[in-house]
Amino acid sequence: MLQIENIGKIYGSGSTAVKALEDVTVRIGNGEFVAVMGPSGSGKSTLMNIIGCLDRATSGTYILDEVDVKELSDDQLAAIRNKKIGFVFQSFNLLPRISALKNVELPMVYAGIGHKERRERAMEALSRVGLSDRMDHNPSELSGGQKQKVAIARALVNRPAIILADEPTGNLDSLSSEEIMVQFQSLNKEGVTVLIVTHEPEIAGHTKRIVTFSDGHLVRDHVVDNPLSAEEILEGKVQALNQSLEGGMQDEWT
Amino acid sequence: MDFTENFKQALMSLTTNKLRSFLTMMGIVMGVFSLVAIMAISNAAKSFMTAEFNKMGANTIILQYRTNDLDERDLLTMADMDNITRGMEEVENIASAKVFLSEVRLEDGNRDAQIIGATSQYPSFQTMDFVVGRFLTASDVEGQRQVVIVTDTYARRYFGTTGILGEEVRIVNHNGGIMKMKVIGVRSTEGDLFASMLEGIDLPVELIVPFTTSQSFFGDGSVDQIQIAVKAGVDLKSAGEKLVRLLSFVHRNEDKYLATSVADIQQAVGNVLGVISMVLLVIAVITLIVGGIGIINILLVSVTERIREIGIRKAIGARKKDIVLQFLTESIMMTGLSGLIGIGLGLVTGAVISSVIKIPPVVDYKIVLLAFFGSVLLGIIFGVYPAKKAADLDPIESLRYE
């Protein structure tokens, strides 16, 4: 349960102060699937950073599972990021010089989990996102979609309650985007709260609720009536692709 | 974050920039290397000196002239030896010598020679090993016999062998007079530091003859110094003062003689050695500090290069101390490894130099351990600032950093 009460965030001070968020109140229950939308500069990323305990609000209160985040030390916040929250970024943010497997193991290293269990759980997470055969590859040897799947595996490996994704499909083609959304929908089905920052309405259409920001204010909060099923769309796209390939081949044959 | 994981990460980070890590480490390697080598050599020199002085005997007093401003009556003679033995019951043993700079006649001309007129007790104060033969006896001295002791290098050079007992050596005096001397002993110069260092250089040959023989041949009965061994338990300082008083009384003069104990000399030489090694140590420490600044510098570069990595680590749950530990481990690994390499190089160099100047090497394990743990400590000191800087980075800023 995330309770955001009258949150404000001001960057800088004096005449150069910028209000990134002003008086935002929103509640997100366990197991929700929410898209945060809005133009750039609207404050949606700032909100995500605050929810993700990477940043602290200037005013207002943020209560995460009955704990007021204001009261927590830096190390306690680090522990929350490690165990309760999984991050997925637009630019993947994998460590470039280590294998996909080692990247997925990293959160467990900081959680103090032993070598053997780390390895098993990382392999499990990678096979869940369909990358069992790419575990020993370094990020530079993976496609964008594959990198983002590694990032999702890393985000889910410590079994967090919340997954925060900041423009997770921003650098991906539509097919890969759909594959990523399949992962998020399946995680949400298992009860994980998923928040996605996006400016693509189609991506937002996969979620169950959309909150829209503008100039640091929450301007709209509505439920999505019939969320799109990423799996179905993906199936359709794959079929269309196959047909066009066949068609192209037939063209060549005739 | 467990230790092995930290270790692996640091190792990977260091091996990613092999050349850079290597060059950074060189500063510390050089510092530790010079430190260990200096300590090894100065320890070897000290223990060598102690051994040499011990051979001479710690209870020895050397009586010399205090000044060059001497009258005929001030000169010490053989008679003074008798005066001393008669006047001081503390004396256990006494010897004296006089060095004449002269020449020795060879088949194809003359060669410079140091002719040492000695008494039979001389070897008690001056260690001497014989290849063949013996030293002068009391009767050689009393009988003014024409006998000589040569060095093994002299024997090999002019006779081709050391077995030359009974052979003839002709010494020359200022008037061109020649005296034929019979070889009764060949002494070994092996293990003599200066002889081996100066091997191949044409120094005057060293010949030892009975004091009485040289006295009459050169027409000079004075001695350069008198060496006195006192009985065990006698205070060297007061014995020395008593000696000087006695001789001043006999010669009716003042402030002409000086009594030095071997212990005094040993201390003086030890002090000089100590100062030299201190200066060298300071230089070594400066090298270490400069090397350490290199490490700080390169770690700061490394932090800047990895701002994004630090941001990622923080986002997935790394605490400040995890980040601090990560960079400290790298720093300690660099300095620790440098320390090991430096110690290795230092010990090898110390051994090589020792063997060149023929001093047995002395390895002080305390110094080796100190050098190693010192390097590790340096790693912590030099790593703290960059590590702290990395840990204090703002996670959001770091994640945005390109």
From TrEMBL, chain A:
What InterPro entries does the annotation carry? AAA+_ATPase, ABC_transporter-like_ATP-bd, ABC_transporter-like_CS, ABC_transpr_LolD-like, MacB-like_ATP-bd, P-loop_NTPase
Q: Which branch of life, at top level?
A: Bacteria
Q: Which GO terms describe its cellular component?
A: membrane protein complex; plasma membrane
Q: Which Pfam families match?
A: ABC_tran (PF00005)
Keywords, ordered alphabetically:
ATP-binding, Nucleotide-binding, Transport
Domain (ABC transporter) spans 2-240
Q: Which GO terms describe its molecular function?
A: ATP binding; ATP hydrolysis activity; transmembrane transporter activity
- Would you tell me the protein name for this molecule? ABC transporter ATP-binding protein
Which organism is this entry from?
Anaerotalea alkaliphila
Automatic annotation (TrEMBL), chain B:
- Taken from the record, one Pfam family name reads MacB_PCD
Gene Ontology molecular-function annotations: transmembrane transporter activity
Where in the numbering of this chain does the ABC3 transporter permease C-terminal domain appear? 282-393
Give the record's keywords alphabetically.
Cell membrane, Membrane, Transmembrane, Transmembrane helix
GO CC terms for this protein? Answer: plasma membrane
Coiled coil (residue ranges): none
- Give the transmembrane ranges: 21-41, 272-302, 323-353, 365-385
Subcellular locations according to the entry:
Cell membrane
Q: Which part of the chain is the MacB-like periplasmic core domain?
A: 21-245
List the membrane topology term(s): Multi-pass membrane protein
* Similarity-based family: Belongs to the ABC-4 integral membrane protein family.
The molecule here is called: FtsX-like permease family protein
